[in-house]
Design goal:
This protein is an alpha/beta fold. The chain contains 15 helices and 19 strands.
Length: about 475
């Protein structure tokens, strides 16, 4: 599971009650500890542990940077000081959560101690003037369920942003010649998003496979894992090649400091090793190292974003949109040759031969049903967006490879979205509703969210705490 650290910068304004602001700073910190949130406070910056003095901004920023915070939370413990919040946020360039505890009933003489909501209005405007994107969690009490939900969603947003801003992908060989759809603009991805590729030729992978076989111990462990977790229907030497390939890819991912990989899965690899890489991909995918097919760099980016949105608790699966369901009007088959993580399967997968290829090394298993999020980062002509929405697993005809029949709200609308682009026939699914988190994360990374169903108002309502 991912670990995210928040900078905790509670704020007050001088004309409202300082004692009440200090009180709510403490109550908020206590609630976050109760929820198990990792945060860095500013109690050592001034006696109150509150952000209100412009002279403290640089000191707080230095502390937060030293501690490596991934996002900042600005609890408005009374009205708050909007411009120092904005200056600190500008200095840090990390996601910002704006929130304040609900005010109590005014005193009998009409005095109001905090005016938190009014301060939130002010800070929101000033953050806009500074061109700082921010996440707003509705004005509520600390024990309201919406506070915990909003805080945990914000942490997931921070995880997506942190992941996206630090992407490095192992690119194993070129894209297959026939797959013009998976071409990408490497220079533009680096210039705009800091997405870095580590390209290696296929020979480097095959040499690593030889080294794994020569070393032996990791290979033996991997073969044992394969035989325990899969129904093996291929020859012993082919199992050895699948196992060596999995170990070799993981070692190259580690060597080049990558978080994911994209491999030219056919056909140079089959000439060298005589197997498909699908099952090896599945093994790494289950370890939280997304490996996608057909050198689909945008697919690898998508996989990293989806898993980050799920906080690493649930594995994603890289799929083709393939055919319509023969019986369900809005049904569709998600399928690929066999690279899905074993943990998403509803049955023990078979290690066998894939559809449309003569070489062994793929898995066959139907995935678990249930609610899923489907997602695709893609772009062309200098514009990038994130297609995303929901679906649910349904029954359907038996398939080959790793597969899941899903039902969406309107398959024709989704089909048109994919055909008209900038998307292709690849997507990433996850058994978790991460649509609101990904939608919110888009504002921080310069990517347009593109919902394939007209649910934007529903997503916004959820983010508002409704």
């Amino acid at each position: 599971m991912a670990t995210i650290k928040l900078g905790f910068a509670p704020t007050r304004r001088s004309i409202f009650s300082a004692p009440d602001a200090i009180k709510y700073r403490g109550l908020t910190a206590d609630r976050m500890r109760e929820l198990g949130i990792d945060f860095v406070d500013i109690d050592d910056i001034n006696e109150e542990g509150l952000l209100y003095d412009d002279d403290d901004v640089k000191k707080i920023a230095a502390k937060f940077k030293k501690e490596g915070v991934d996002g900042i939370m600005f609890p408005h413990c009374n009205f708050g000081t909007e411009y120092v919040c904005a200056r600190l946020a500008k200095e840090m360039n990390v996601p910002v959560m704006l929130w304040g505890p609900l005010d109590e009933r005014p005193e009998e003489n009409g005095v109001r101690l905090r005016d938190t909501q009014c301060g939130l209005f002010a800070t929101g405007k000033v953050l806009r003037r500074f061109r700082i994107p921010f996440t707003y969690v509705t004005n509520c009490r600390l024990n309201d369920p919406v506070f915990e939900r909003g805080l945990r969603d914000f942490i997931a947003v921070c995880n997506v942003v942190k992941t996206f801003r630090n992407i490095r992908i192992l690119q194993i060989s070129t894209r297959p010649f026939d797959f013009w759809t998976t071409m990408c603009n490497e220079g533009e991805l680096l210039e705009r998003f800091n997405v870095q590729l580590a390209p290696v030729p296929m020979t480097e992978l095959t040499e690593e496979v030889k080294a794994v076989k020569a070393e032996g111990s990791k290979l033996a462990d991997m073969i044992s894992y394969i035989r325990e977790s899969m129904e093996v229907q291929i020859k012993d030497n082919e199992v050895e090649n699948v196992a060596a390939l999995a170990v070799a890819m993981e070692q190259l991912v580690e060597k080049y400091g990558c978080g994911a990989a994209a491999i030219q899965c056919w056909n140079a690899l089959q000439t060298e090793l005589g197997v498909m890489p699908c099952a090896a991909n599945a093994i790494l995918n289950d370890k939280g190292i997304p490996v996608v097919c057909e050198t689909d760099i945008h697919g690898a980016i998508t996989a990293l974003m989806v898993e980050a949105a799920g906080m690493g608790e649930t594995r994603g699966f890289f799929a083709d949109w393939t055919i319509r369901h023969p019986d369900i009007e809005n049904g569709e088959l998600l399928q690929h040759c066999g690279p899905w993580p074993i943990s998403v399967a509803k049955e023990k997968p078979q290690l066998t031969y894939p559809l449309a290829f003569d070489h062994p090394g793929s898995l066959t298993a139907e995935a678990k049903h249930g609610d899923v999020t489907l997602c695709r980062f893609d772009g062309d002509n200098g514009e990038y967006s994130l297609l995303l929405g929901n679906a649910k697993g349904v029954d359907g005809p038996k398939g080959m490879g790793t597969y899941l029949w899903v039902e969406v709200d309107n398959i024709k609308r989704l089909e048109a979205k994919i055909v008209e682009g900038p998307y292709i026939h690849h997507c990433v699914g996850i058994h978790k509703d991460v649509v609101p988190v990904l939608y919110e994360a888009c504002k921080y990374i310069g990517v347009k969210p593109d919902l394939y169903d007209p649910i934007e108002e529903d997503v916004k309502a959820y983010l508002r705490g409704e």
